[in-house]
Design a protein that fits this description.
The complex is a heterotetramer, with two copies of chain A and two copies of chain B. Chain A is an alpha/beta fold. Chain A contains twelve helices and 14 strands. In chain A, strand 2, helix 2 (44-52) and strand 3 form a beta-alpha-beta unit. In chain A, helix 3 runs parallel beside helix 4 (91-97) and helix 9 crosses helix 10 (269-280). The longest helix of chain A is centred in the N-terminal third of the chain and has 15 residues, at 6-20. The radius of gyration of chain A is 19 Å and the shape is globular. Chain B is of the alpha/beta class. Chain B has a single domain (10-316), classed as Rossmann fold, CATH 3.40.50.970. Helix content of chain B is 42%, strand content 9%. Chain B has a five-stranded parallel β-sheet, with helices on both faces. In chain B, strand 6, helix 9 and strand 7 (245-250) form a beta-alpha-beta unit. The longest helix of chain B is centred in the first third of the chain and has 26 residues, at 18-43. Chain B is globular, with a radius of gyration of 20 Å. The chains are: A alpha/beta, B alpha/beta. Chains in contact: A-B, A-C, A-D, B-C, B-D, C-D. Chain C binds chain D through residues 25, 51-52, 56-57, 59, 61-62, 64-75, 77, 89, 92-93, 96-97, 100-110, 141-142, 144, 164-166, and chain D through 75, 104-111, 115, 117-119, 124-125, 127-129, 132, 134-143, 145-146, 153, 165-166, 168-170, 172-173, 176, 330-334. The structure holds thiamine diphosphate (TPP) (2 copies) and magnesium ion (2 copies). One thiamine diphosphate (TPP) sits between chains D (79, 128-130, 157-161, 186, 188, 190-192, 253, 257) and A (29, 58, 60, 82, 86, 89).
Chain lengths: 327, 335, 327, 335
């Protein structure tokens, strides 16, 4: 066990999976000698060669479509989309094909595919290098969506995703690549898809979140402890399918729920979480279900002041948590 | 053909035996007869929807017989009934599919008619959005290359569908990696009501191959043996590791687009009649008759055998079990 | 004023808009001599010619992309996507381009585009001719989404959409084309985008819904009146942006809310509605917020029994409404 | 050129005056000098991001001068600084954009550097997902045709971007409707780190035009006057109503992909140096010197004038106002 950066844990998982299983291969734009624009796949081509670490033409629908074909033949492709914003040309292949392959063929053909993509803002990425797109896909049965918040989870969930017999979207907050580090088990390490985890227990308010926001929420929670506000913090880890049981339990635990995500609010993942709670735990609530999310604008601007205005940060979360605690 | 009696007949030149060409004819006829039956059942109110292969059987069978369904794979499209049969599905399989019964090997009744696919027959699952299968086939061919296996993957689509981005992205990927895949465009002159001239401005869909760095070939889709020949060449190329080929088979859709369509709005009866006269069913039969391989009595024997199988298949499918309604919830994920 | 079929009201709006404004034109697959596969555009080409009623190549991203270019130059294109299922290849153009054009250019370039598409099931359309895809887009700021439930609204909302200076997705339940008929004003008739409407008032339970489900809910409501259950029925009409005020008011009115949509449940439009209510009217509620929706499977099967299993119908809605009333 | 002194010089043959070619050179130099300044500012920590035009100015200016920015439209891509300047943006506009200030005419500080666009300059708004602008340009050209106006629309993109579905769908649409649009591919041999051979298998991107039914032309992007010539021909064709042209300008990206890239991982210094020797800036200057239109002192005058404007622009932008943070909420919709 060693302390590793988030990005290194992801690379770790790729090395491990590719060494272990010849059917695993990586494809995407610049994943080869360049090692990916964020350097996630660095070093892979040296060990596994250019066929298993394949630089593709600049065509996302083609990348995903080809990966679906290879997956149908028993390969386990790990496709990288350079920025999640550029997954949009591949939406038809993902939703019409990957998500429906098993279902439409009555369990005959399958699609054991992983699509990795960096997402998230606060990195001067502007409109098209900052988006969160999980809400676009979490409505789609047949897909799984994973968003890790720790290096250990990144490794364990990516290995689980690669082993998963169905298509998994694996979204990595790009702001975390070189910011987050924690103890990552060596070798085999699986974190099951579909299970949320409590990052902190507390009896006053429940915060449900994922990705980078987990860290902000924890930071704020530590601070608020000193004021006697004890937060219960659930890290979803899997966005689809949501861990309904863990969500309801966490909501019931304090009766006060704040859902936090960087993505814009309307129709975001928080909507479903709030709806679930309102449907199954309404009478356990002591406060309205609150959501703190990005503003409903098309995407995050480049100008530093505007980007900051858009992005959630510990201060905004602190205000929201205190507000809920006081309710 | 007269006067050529002493030269090797075309199919022998191509290395096809007499039995093989008869088998080809039989598959074409099987497809046609099933298709005709589907229309009858549709008009009788028994099947809500039909999408036809009529007019394209020659191209489909010419191509399919150039492959080896025991090792090769196909990612066909909804008109490829001929291909589906050549890869081993039976009239019973087809009828179970049309009636959306539990035993339908294609989707267990989940998908619309014409949406075939079964792993054991090496047939990739068909969806409705056109052209998505093209990158799939490229990925299947990539699997062959990565595993150093020699199977080829065949993918078919209409000429209208060759205008989708996925056609472009799939062809380009295959070209770059020299993958063993055959892009087979069944150019039937229409995308529903839209005639070729409003779909493309190029002379031939096959011209597009140049932009992907592999050969493009135009072939008369009513000339079964020519289709066989060019496809065989493409298959050989692919097996040798020389990469993809784009084949454009010129055909004509003899029926409306589907049972929901009325083609009188957008094309004349004369045009359709003219095409009917060139139907591969007729042309190929002529050839076989002239070759002394077929006569009316032999044709009748084949036809009767096929009809019996189709009748039985229809009867079976008509009373076969439906999937349980609540099985709607199954197979979203593996577990 | 005359009673018209839903489909005829849509055609009416197209004729009216095209006669009135030369910048309005229609493009799509088979919209010309074929008059569209559902015959919505029938007769247009005879009056307006093949340039203003343009049969396009089979390429949805191209259709939408070209329409965006024409809209940028001041045209008002009405693009038809043959089935909403086939909008997926155009998602990048819709979300990256149409939705963000005004925003990213700081109000300089705009995108006054309408995309019409038939959606919905119960018509033996199977997986790819039955889907509801509004949930894929309602999360996206910059887009508007309209789903009419009456012939009069279809006309009035389509005219409003065509006049709207921003991109509008106009989704038509294909099962309603020849099923729904009502009085449609002649000539100019505008129904404002963004305004829900009460179809029925009642004090016991609130049903919030849209499209075909409005009719089912009304049918059930009439029946339940006889049992003394009085339903308050809100027809959303606009899915994005949602009419927050009308939703909250309708929820408060009875304190018991059932949200109904044909689309599958998780992450559907109902999620946001429930979340809104749970955030703003929680203490006015006397029952959990209930959602009745399609099951979370990739799409509707073809087999008649399975299709019926999937689809909502008056019986399922009746059960849910009675259940809520009894709560 | 020696020994040709008596024949008409190339630019005169093309109908370009001496002043015009000097103006072309000046625009190229303006683009280059701004670009160099951007890198300095980036390395000094003042600009988080730069994406360059260096090596492509010749192609851009050769093409832009074949159009009339007062009537024609351009849908350029992020490397098109030359085009942007030729269509009328000033160094000040560019610097305001780079610093993401409120006065940035491209996006009011909302978009990343290189994401130009301003209606008054007839420049379509650029986004990041590549190739989406290609169908837009086709739609703009459709507007010209529908309004019976004679403006042409120019759209540019990298060779990597020519592998996106939107390239295919846009070209095909334009071909079918014979629209006045010029598809201008700036083939700089790389898509970030991916070299041409891993992107495409065709000999020339221009070969793809065949599949869309219009001409495809390859031109040396370092030969400004040749680029002008072929683009002018394409513009004339388009204005005459004869439809689109695909032009492939062979260039080389002299800088890394962007300020975030390190190109040493995927190409050699020798390769870059070789390309630098063929830089259009050098080649075109040589031509002008040989024509007696330029000498070191005239060059210096031009350069000084440009540098002064760039310095002033930088100073202005550095202290210009930011948009108010809460303006993040503006312009989601019209009202
Ligand atoms: C992406 C997509 N858009 C639209 C449709 C509706 N549609 C079904 S078949 C068809 C025409 C196909 O024409 P072509 O590719 O020439 O094949 P053909 O039916 O003529 O064999 C259309 C538009 C579809 N299935 N998929
Ligand atoms: C749809 C999409 N996918 C990926 C990217 C990331 N990306 C930005 S530029 C680029 C390479 C572009 O290469 P090319 O088209 O040759 O243009 P060049 O930068 O070489 O001028 C890539 C992959 C993107 N912007 N859009
Ligand atoms: Mg066709
Ligand atoms: Mg390039």
């Amino acid at each position: 066990m060693a302390v590793k950066l988030f990005i290194d844990a992801i690379r770790d998982a790729l090395f491990h999976a590719m060494r272990e299983d010849e059917q695993v291969f990586v494809l995407g734009e610049d994943v080869g000698v360049r090692g990916g624009v964020f350097r996630v796949t660095q070093g892979l081509i040296e060990e596994f060669g250019e066929q298993r670490v394949m630089d593709t033409p600049l065509a996302e629908s083609g990348i995903v479509g080809v990966a679906i074909g290879a997956a149908a033949m028993g390969f386990k492709p790990v496709a990288e989309i350079q920025f999640v914003d550029f997954i949009l040309p591949a939406v038809n292949q993902i939703i019409s094909e990957a998500a429906k392959m098993r279902y439409r063929s009555n369990n005959d053909w399958t699609c054991p595919l992983v699509i990795r993509a960096p997402f998230g803002g606060g990195v001067h990425g502007a409109l098209y290098h900052s988006q969160s797109l999980e809400a676009l896909f979490y409505h789609v049965p047949g897909l799984k969506i994973v968003i890790p918040s720790t290096a250990a989870d990144a490794k364990g969930l990516l290995l689980a995703a690669i082993r998963d017999p169905d298509p998994v979207l694996f979204f990595e907050h790009k702001g975390m690549y070189r910011l987050i580090r924690d103890e990552v088990p060596d070798g085999e390490h699986i974190v099951p898809i579909g299970k949320a985890t409590l990052r902190k227990t507390g009896d006053d308010i429940t915060v449900i979140t994922y990705g980078l926001m987990v860290h902000y929420a924890l930071e704020v929670a530590t601070k608020l402890e000193q004021e006697g506000i004890h937060a219960h913090i659930l890290d979803l880890r899997t966005i689809a399918p949501l861990d309904r049981e863990a969500i309801i339990e966490a909501a019931r635990h304090t009766g006060k729920v704040l859902i936090v995500h960087e993505d814009n609010k309307t129709g975001g993942v928080g909507a479903e979480i709030a709806a679930m709670i309102a449907e199954e735990a309404l009478f356990d609530l002591d406060a309205p279900i609150m959501r703190l999310a990005g503003p409903d604008v098309p995407a995050m601007p480049y100008n530093a002041g505007m980007e900051k205005f858009y992005m959630l940060n510990p201060q905004k979360i602190e205000d929201a948590m205190r507000n809920l605690a006081r309710f | 053909m007269k006067g050529e009696i002493n030269v090797l007949s075309k199919h022998h030149q191509l290395g096809l035996t007499d039995d093989q060409v008869i088998a080809m004819y039989e598959k074409m006829l099987e497809a046609r007869l099933i298709d005709e039956r589907l229309w009858l059942l549709n008009r009788a109110g028994k099947l809500p929807f039909v999408v036809s292969c009529q007019g394209q059987e020659g191209a489909q069978i010419g191509a399919a017989f150039a492959m080896d369904p025991t090792i090769d794979y196909a990612a066909p499209y909804y008109r490829d009934l001929g291909t589906i049969l050549a890869f081993g599905q039976t009239p019973k399989d087809i009828m179970l599919h049309m009636y959306a019964r539990a035993e339908d090997p294609n989707s267990g009744g989940r998908q619309m008619p014409g949406h075939y696919g079964s792993k054991k027959h090496h047939l990739m699952s068909i969806s409705s959005p056109v052209s998505t299968q093209i990158p799939h086939a490229v990925g299947m061919a990539l699997a062959a290359k990565m595993r150093k296996e020699t199977f080829v993957t065949y993918v078919s689509f209409g000429e209208g569908s060759s205008n989708q981005g996925d056609f472009h992205e799939g062809c380009n990927f295959a070209g770059v990696h020299k993958l063993p895949v055959i892009f087979f465009c069944e150019n039937n002159q229409y995308a529903i009501s839209v005639p070729l001239a409003k779909q493309v401005a190029c002379e031939h869909i096959a011209d597009r191959a140049l932009g992907y760095g592999f050969p493009g070939v135009v072939v008369d889709g009513n000339d079964v043996l020519e289709v066989y020949r060019v496809t065989k060449e493409a298959v050989d190329r692919a097996r040798r590791g020389d990469g993809p080929t784009l084949i454009e088979a010129l055909t004509y859709r003899l029926t409306p687009h589907s049972s929901d369509d009325d083609d009188r709005a957008y094309r004349s009866k004369e045009e359709v009649d003219e095409a009917k006269a060139k139907d591969a069913m007729i042309v190929f039969k002529d050839y076989l008759v002239k070759q002394g391989l077929l006569d009316e009595s032999k044709e009748k024997t084949i036809r009767d055998r096929l009809m019996q199988a189709i009748n039985e298949a229809t009867d079976y499918a008509q009373t076969a079990q439906d999937p349980p309604p609540e099985s709607t919830l199954d197979y979203v994920y593996a577990n």
